[in-house]
Write a structure and sequence with these properties.
The chain is α+β, with helices and mostly antiparallel strands and about 400 residues long. The chain is built from 9 helices and 15 strands.
């Protein structure tokens, strides 16, 4: 399919297919065999094995774009009119006479404005972290106290020494920060090409071809306009090591309408809209660090079919069909230095939450992998996935 046709069709018609969101109901009593195999966690892995939620601080981003503070000149014109009243002599005696005069004055003033682009990201990112359910957010009040000592708020560029000091003062495990890298604006006008395509197809005997031509013209009217593109980088820093453990570049565009010469406020609105629309792309990455962790408390079997109970439930926003991944912990010894470290890997087994959910526990079936490899006490992590949904790819 021609690229412009494909893009226009996707812009005009968005169809989502749901391939079944069935219930996942089980009867625990139908699984009579209890499995008592216990997980063995190496001593070096015990600190990482703890399921306590990490504390996270969100530091305001650095604005590296050329768009931020600005001085805007406002010009206002005002026309003042006045009546001049006098006394004259007429044929009938004294009469009032009048004349009018007008004066136009111009007034110009400058106002300094701040787009506050970096600050606009802090709240939505904090919301993403809170919604993960597996992290505690450092309060803004605590952040302000620490900022008074470290003076790196609004910098977005935190050196390892400051990270270590911040960690000691706040107890934060992770810092989330980043930068706004670039802002571009470009007027998009596909109307000419769309009209030509429509004219070329309107006389066709093929109704499908006519429909495509119509959709192209309609699509151009929807997609044309001033497009603001925002590019930014988000990173997660481990305060214990000072290392950047995750970095991701995000780019999104927002169409602010058919405005060839947008004003400052219209551009700011487009920039912020584009940035906010990019943030959901962080959900999977945040899930690796901030998702809820728990462990398997019971394993039961019926023949070779296994079900597992985990110690996290409704209080941590677990719902039916929620997917959990199982984690493995192994001690790793460096062959050159002999130094021992902990190696964490994701098991091939995935669990799927059933309807058996209490505030603190969930019974789950095996969604993928071999359930017989699971062990009581094995760590599991809530993912951002839910089973039963599918969206087709074009």
């Amino acid at each position: 399919m021609n690229k412009i046709v494909r893009n226009s069709l996707l812009s005009v018609v968005a169809v989502t297919f749901i391939t079944g969101c069935g219930k996942n109901e089980i009867d625990i009593a139908a699984y009579p065999t209890k499995i008592n195999n216990m997980v063995q966690v190496p001593d070096v892995c015990l600190p990482q094995y703890k399921s306590a939620m990490p504390t996270v601080a969100v530091i305001d981003f650095t604005n590296n774009s050329t768009f931020g503070k600005a001085d805007i000149a406002n010009s206002n014109s005002r026309r003042d009119s006045a009546a001049i009243v006098g006394v004259g002599v007429g044929p009938t005696g004294f009469v009032a006479g009048g004349a009018s005069t007008s004066n136009t004055t111009s007034h110009s003033e400058n106002r300094s404005v701040d787009a506050k682009l970096a600050e606009s990201l802090t709240g939505p990112i904090e919301t993403l972290i809170v919604n993960s359910g597996g992290a505690k957010l450092l309060s803004r009040a605590d952040m302000s106290k620490i900022d008074a000592e470290l003076k790196f708020q609004d910098s977005g560029l935190v050196d390892p020494a400051s990270v270590a000091k911040f960690g000691k003062l706040s107890g934060a495990k992770y810092i989330v920060t980043g930068s706004i890298d670039n802002v571009e604006q470009k007027y998009r006008d596909n109307s000419g090409a769309a009209k030509a395509a429509g004219d070329a197809t309107k006389n066709s005997d093929n109704n499908a071809v006519k429909l495509i031509g119509f959709l192209l013209q309609a699509g151009a009217s929807v997609t044309d306009g001033m497009v603001i593109t925002s590019t930014m980088t988000v990173k997660i820093i481990d305060v214990e090591t000072g290392q950047i453990v995750m970095t991701k570049a995000l780019e999104k565009s927002a169409n602010i309408g058919k405005i060839r010469n947008p004003n400052y406020d219209q551009i700011v609105g487009g920039i912020k809209t584009a940035m906010l629309e990019a943030l959901p792309d962080l959900e999977a990455d945040f899930a690796d660090y901030f998702s809820v962790k728990g462990y398997i408390t019971q394993l039961k079997a019926k023949d070779k079919e296994v079900v597992a109970q985990v110690n996290i439930g409704r209080d941590l926003k677990v719902v039916e069909n929620q997917i959990f991944k199982a984690l493995n912990f192994d001690a790793l010894t460096d062959p050159m230095t002999g130094k021992e470290s902990c190696d964490v890997s994701v098991s091939a087994v995935k669990l799927r939450a059933t309807q058996q959910i209490t505030p603190n526990t969930t019974w789950a079936t095996i969604e993928e992998g071999d359930g017989t490899t699971l062990k009581v006490g094995q760590l599991v992590q809530k993912t951002h996935e839910k089973a039963g949904f599918g969206i087709p790819k074009f």
